[in-house]
Structures are given as C-alpha cells and as structure tokens.
Amino acid sequence: MNELLASLVIPPFDFRTVFMEPWTRWADATVWMLLMAVLLALPCAILGNYLLLRRMALAGDAISHSVLPGLVVSYLIFRDLGTVPMMAGAMVAGLVTTVLIEFITQRSRLKSDAATGITYTTLFALGMFLVNRYAGKVHLDADCVLFGELEYVPLAEPTRWVWGSLGAVPVPVAVGALLAVGTLGLLWAASRWLLVTSFDAGFAKAAGLPAGWVHYGLMALLSVVVVVALESVGLLVVALLVLPGATAQFFADGMRKLHAWAAVFGVTACVAGIHLGAWLNCPSSAAIALAGGVQFGLAWGVSAAAARMRKWSPASGQA
User: In 3D, which of 94, 71, 93, 68 has the Cα closest to residue 83?
Assistant: First the structure.
C-alpha cells in the first residue's frame, strides 16, 4: 500500500528518461526550453537582488498578479495581442500597482506588506473577472498566465530576422534574448543609483538623487520582465525573482558577488528543473521553481552547518 501511494506521488526514477532522453530524443526541444529559462532567470536574478535589498520581495508577486487586468484592458483598447500593446498594458498595470501600494502605505496605518497584499489580490481578482467576462473576445488562457507553457516555446513561430545554429530561433527566445540584454544593460547603467537608493533612500534624496524616479523605473522594468516571463513560466516568475538572490545571500558579502552567485543559482535551477520535470512529469516551470526552493534549503543547511563548525572550532575558543 505504501509503495502504491509513493508511486502515485513520485514516479519511479529512471536515469535514461531523466538525464539522457532530454538530450538525445528531445534534444532540440530541451535546448530551446533551457535557453528560454536561462534568458529569463538571469535578468530576474539580478533584478530580484535589488527587490530583496529594498525589502520588496512581494513586489514581484504583486506585479505578476496585477498585470492580468492590464493585459485584458490593453487588448480591449487596442484589439491587438502583439508584444508592444501587451507590454504597455503590463507596464501601466505595474505602475498602478506601485502607486496604489505607496498611496495606501502613506495614507493609512497599514504597513507595506499589508498594502501589497490588498493591492495585488484585488487587482488579480479584477483580472480574473475580466478574463471570464470577456472570454470570447480576449484570447488569454488563464492556465497559461498562472503556470506558463515553457514546453510550447520550441513550437512557437520562428523569427524571420534571427537565425541560430539549430535553425530559426523561436519568437519567445528572441524576445527573451532582447529582454535579458536590455534588462541587464539598464541595471548595469543604473547600478550606482540603485545601490544607493536601495540601502538608504533618505540619503539618496538628500544627495539630490532622483530616488522616486529610480523606484518607479525599477517597477516599470519589473513589469516588462514579468509580462515577458508570464508566457513561459507564468506566475512562477516570482520564484526566479526571489529564490536565486535569497540563496546567494548565504555566500556573498558584496554586491558583485551577490549578482554572480544569484546568476549561478538561477542557471543551475533551470538545468535541474528541466531534468526534475522529466522525472516528475510536471510542467518545467514548476520544476524549476521547485529546484530553486531545494537549492535554498540546501544552502541554508550548509550555511548553518558552517556557522556551527566555526563556533565550535578550536580557533573560536570553544571546547
């Protein structure tokens, strides 16, 4: 009976199915899926570091939920599911979310976490209502928004202006590459402003830095990243925003090292998630998020064990 229950929860492990077939039988699909995941993980990891420094880990969650009504309203206005209208709608929704959170925090006794919870749950509920209300007009798949469809990336329409060694590059991968380059470039260019405003917004304002513009610019960039990621990993983009940076904090003592470690953990979570999804027969996006959570748990355990060893080592003076 126990074996039956175990088999229903966790499929039997087969080395060939988990580690070999993704790179032999399904090699073309695996390459595009992994490349897409990495192109999303890298900008999310670096962007997530700044969110964690600002104690805004829930901001990614809030915006990832609140972009849904922005997508629907954008389509109802422009009657176009193209990338530009969708990004515009998502950016506006992200900025509205940020403004609402700031307004509630400043005009009430509620803390930012409560304001964030109120805002994103309300806007997400509004988005779900709009999707169901205009289901015949808006071709948005709620399940795709929630969980993403990383497995469909290799089947996407190929670009006509980008060619790779394996043939035409799927449109989502080309868009992901532009997103990664653009996001990382903007974060690098604004790194000093982001660093100062993240650690001490009051000092930044006193020094004449545009802390408000930096904040809203960061939220706008986050909105764009989220809406591009929704198609592939759904709302699990929150895991890519939070887990790599949180895991990196166990090993990094400086901003450059934090970025480097976050990028490493983001990429390794993608690789492990592809194989984990093949084993558990679940969506790869969910498996990537699960792999990131396992990484965090292991890093936490290693860090705690190392701290105990340092505490009880002879050099520390403890017997």
Answer: 71
